[in-house]
Amino acid sequence: HGQPRDPRPAPPGRSRRGAEPSPAAGNQPVPPEGADTKTYLWARYHEMKKLVYDLLPPGVCNLLNPAAIYANNEISLGDVEIYGFDYDYTLAQYSNLLHSMIFNTARDILIEQFKYPEGLGKYDYIPGFAIRGLHYDVQKSLLMKIDAFHYVQLGTAYRGLKPVPDEEVIELYGGTQHIPLYQMSDFYGKGPSLKQFMDIFSLPEMTLLSSVIDYFITHGIEFDQVHLYKDISDAIRDVHVKGVMYKWIEKDLEQYILHGDEIYAVLNRLVNHKKKLFLITNSPFSFVDKGMKHMVGKNWRDLFDMVIVQADKPNFFTDRRKPFRKLDDNGSLQWDKINQLEKGKIYKEGNLFDFLRLTGWRGSKVLYFGDHLYSDLADLMLRHGWRTGAIVPELETEIRIINTEQYMHSLTWQQALTGLLERMQMYQDAESKQVLLEWMKERQEIRSLTKNLFNPQFGSIFRTFHNPTYFSRRLVRFSDIYMASINDVNFTFYPRRTPLQHEAPLWMDQLCTGCMKTPFLEEMVHIR
């Protein structure tokens, strides 16, 4: 739209003559002589749309590897001497069939033991209804997704199985989307009135909670929110504590446990590299023993320097009171005092402080893997300086969605459209305002589309539109690396420097999706 520009960047503080000043400098793009602003805006729109679709290179939809390990912090695994593991959803990945079994059993406990209406028996588990990391407001019966800044993502608040209108959500929280988490919840997401569901076993709990509320609302039955939440939590807990779930898995290991061969390969490789291995799990020994024999072989204990079962995490990491107890080879409890932790032996309960004292395994030479950001990783990183690896099985599915052509085109165009809105917002005549409103509406539609690709109710576990989720922020805070499942771990990870918002104009090669230049990059090059 004017004179050709000198492609060289201008010196700091100056723009090259003839360059179109950026809006950040207080100027605005000017329509060609004789063109009205409405025509000019739509011309820029179509120009940008063509650019977006022309410049998406072949193969762009396979940029990300679902099996890769991703780093939040620089870490050389060659410097790690000791590797620790949780068991459930870390070494042992489970089939989704388990969720239906947990849901059905807890539902039946509500009906038979807690005397809930028999009509609840018509509800079945809904795969894909909930996602991990959601918050539940007990007093308001709201299940919702909250972002890293403690705001509800509108459109993701549910009471029962139905969404709550945005206006009602805002009214419920005093005219704002902001949730006062520090008043309502504690560090571990277990406050008196707000609960965060952080482990994968919580998916059937959230679905049961929503189903029961749906039944009561549909049938006009008044209920006490606090009692309802506690009853459902107790029913779900009984499935675990009373060993019902363990029996299902033990009866059909082939059906329930996934990726067993890969676990053996990784553990064996670590031992061959002279690494020490230990296991700390809340599950009982007989259950772990059967699962590990299935995945690794009957001599699985030879790979581990230490095995600790029924550890009662997260209390294991914070409470000094419980001493270690030894189990014999049959899993029977021994009475003798523990003065050392011996290789090949099985221990129950205990605490991390005794563990550190008896092993001397401290600081960044230890890397511990777990799936629960709070129970497994938070205290180890913050209090004890261990390196941590988060196992996030959902990562594989989400990356496969990100790699689709539909997602890539939608996101790229959304980024470009956002750039247009930002660039052209200074046009405030009536016709221009109407154009901008149409663009904003389209942008919102694209955002909803990309959200629904992950989950129609709650979207991605990692994003609330442009912001990270609360789950995602905790993932970054409490893990050095994260991955979908235990993988090859002999590498140095260098996380890429990504721009802060005030740095973005300096990143000349910053890509809006990893595949094309940021819209208006030529104009941005002159901002210094």
From TrEMBL:
Keywords: Hydrolase, Magnesium, Metal-binding. Binds 1 Mg(2+) ion per subunit. InterPro entries: HAD-like_sf, HAD-SF_hydro_IG_5-nucl, HAD_sf, Pur_nucleotidase. GO terms for molecular function: 5'-nucleotidase activity; metal ion binding. Residues 1-34 are annotated as: Disordered. The keyword Transmembrane does not apply. Its cofactor is Mg(2+). The active site is at 86 (nucleophile), 88 (proton donor). Mg(2+) binds at residues 86, 371. GMP binds at residue 88. Belongs to the 5'(3')-deoxyribonucleotidase family. NCBIfam families: HAD-IG-Ncltidse. This is 5'-nucleotidase domain-containing protein 2. The lineage of its organism: Eukaryota, Metazoa, Chordata, Craniata, Vertebrata.
